[in-house]
Give the backbone structure.
Amino acid sequence: MANRFQVRQHDIAYKFIAARDGEYCLQCKRKPPVKLQIDHADNNPDNWDPENLHLLCQKHNLELRGKPVAEHKKAIRDYSANNERERARERGRENTHLVKDMVDFRNASPEMKANSYYETQFREWLLTVIREQRLITKVEAANSGAEVVGCSPLTANRYLAKLTSSVGPLRESKDATGTIIISFK
């Protein structure tokens, strides 16, 4: 029988994982009322390192538990990366939204206040456009995005540079005419 410490540790870990990754099975994306279990990627139930913990439905937790540790960890990495790409396509990188919610910009400079608004709005607008149209020219993204959110085209180009960096969810490429286009990676 589990003691109170173990139950409390489990509840805290569950809430942390759900806040970090979302409350759904990492593999099949089913959500409660499906009962989710805490998966230990290294198959060691004593290892409560946050990077080792993930939520899985019972079926997928049992499936992965039967695999060798290296295969189990690789599957978790693959599912996590895929889910992160999908989240970035839906909303942009979560860090942008988390910082905006956490930082008190009341005492910030006007530029910081404006940037905290414009960048989030620009990212959401552009990701929606690309999700619907699959691509947009770089010039159109910068100019239309600037018009939609109210920032300058120069500022919009800075946001585009971040979104198309090596860790951003978008990429630049050239079409048959040599025009630079923006699309999902």
Observations:
- The longest strand covers residues 36-40.
- Residues 40 and 46 are 9 Å apart (CA to CA).
